[in-house]
Every structure is written in C-alpha cells, then in structure tokens.
Design a protein that fits this description.
Blueprint: H1 15-31, E1 40-41, H2 43-50, H3 54-66, E2 70-73, E3 77-80, H4 85-107, H5 114-123, H6 134-151, H7 155-172, H8 179-197, H9 201-241
Length: 242
C-alpha cells in the first residue's frame, strides 16, 4: 500500500477537514480494491500512512461503516466487510424506479434542459472522440444518470438518487475496466438520449431499464473476478514477505 500524506493545511485547518480527506482517501482505496473483504484496518497504521492522528481516521472509518464498507469488532478492531450483493441488488431497484420516473417527467417538458444539452455533447459524438479511460468513464456514466434525474426538475428525486449512487459506487465503476463495456455504454446511452429527445418515453424507459439491468449483471461478474485477483495478489505478497 503506497503512502499517502494528507496536508494539515494552514493554521486553523480543522479536524473535520482532515477527517474528510482521510475518508476520501480510504474510500478511494476501497473502491479500487486495494483492500479486500476480511482485511484488518489499524487506526494507528492508517493515520501514520496518511499523515494524520487517529481521531480523523476513526471518524472516517465510522463514516465508511455507515455506508456498509467496513465494520468494527470488539477487541479485534476494524475490518473490510464482504460485498453484500443482495443489498446492492436492493439498491438498484429504487435506482431504476427513480430514473424511469424522471424519464416520464422529461418527455412531457416542452424545452430541452441544459442537462440534456450537456449530455448530447458528451454521448452523441463520433467514435474517435469517445472517452476510453475507465475512471473517467465511471464519472461520466454517473453524471449521465444523475443528469437525467436532475433534468426532470424534481430536487427530491435527485437527492435520493444521489444517495443510492453513493452506495453502489464501490462496484459500479468496475463496469468500465473492459473496453467492450465502454463501447456498449456509449451505444446504449446514445439510444436512450435520442429517444428522450424525440419524446418517445416508453421506448426510452424500456431501453433504460434493460441498460441498468445488464450493467448490474456485468458488474457482479467483474467484481467477483476482481476480488479473486486481489486476493491472489494479497496471498502472493504475504508469501513473498516471509
């Protein structure tokens, strides 16, 4: 695990800021599978590596606990929780409901929203102009779905959708580690967007539901494969250190 130092910042830089930075760093490592389920997490070691005291690390870990990524056991300390695929499946259900409801609202609007204009400039582009970086694709994919909900004009729908997005991010972005999944996402997003622009609501919803369900199935397969590889690397590293 590489060392990451979080600057303490100028005088007056408070503990909350350090806890936020520790949280972002640790969550990024969990999302990248630098840690695998069952790994133990030491507050002291994490704090030393991040360049902060144990207090902001502990606050970050408790925040990650509320998101279901880590947990703590009496006397044994913190550990990375196994991925709960059943829980993730349950989170995908409200996501689908929210996005389909947003399409219903979008297709009856008389004007194209700024969000739709931005999406057209990103997704309706020639193949040569498509993004290929997996991390950037993950960000663009999230933004596509979030923008559809935001463009509906219902702030509460958008707020709940953002909460669901945060909870499934740990596996969702793995969908773009394969080039064929990037190509499929561009194609499917483009078709959904065109149907919305043409006010073909039923067609857009059918494609959107299929797109999300397919992505969920692919993510599960990729996640299991990635976890297997991460555990192999961890085992090899342990054996090499002996």
């Amino acid at each position: 695990m590489r060392a990451v130092t979080l600057s303490s910042g100028p005088p007056g830089h408070n503990r909350t800021s350090l806890a936020e930075k520790a949280y972002a760093a640790l969550k990024g490592e969990l999302h990248n599978f630098s840690w695998v389920p069952g790994d133990r997490l030491s507050e002291g070691e994490l704090g030393q590596r991040l360049g902060v005291s144990r207090t902001p690390v502990r606050e970050a870990l408790f925040r990650l606990r509320t998101e279901g990524l880590v947990d703590v056991e009496s006397k044994l300390g913190w550990y990375v929780k196994p991925i709960d695929f059943e829980r993730l499946d349950q989170l995908y259900d409200p996501r689908i409901v929210l996005e389909l409801a947003s399409v219903d609202r979008l297709v009856v609007r008389r004007d194209d929203t700024p969000e739709l204009a931005t999406l057209k400039s990103i997704w309706l582009v020639p193949v040569a102009e498509r993004q290929s970086d997996p991390q950037r694709m993950g960000e663009l994919d999230e933004a596509f779905h979030a923008s559809l909900v935001k463009a509906s004009g219902n702030l509460e729908l958008s707020r709940v959708h953002q909460d669901v997005t945060e909870r499934i991010r740990v596996v969702r972005r793995l969908d773009f580690t394969r080039p064929d999944r990037i190509d499929a996402t561009y194609s499917e997003h483009g078709k959904i967007l065109r149907a919305i622009i043409q006010r073909k609501g039923d067609q857009a919803k059918l494609m959107l539901r299929s797109h999300i369900e397919q992505s969920k199935a692919e993510v599960r397969k990729i996640t299991l494969h990635t976890l297997h590889e991460a555990k192999l690397r961890s085992s090899i590293s342990i054996l090499a250190s002996r």
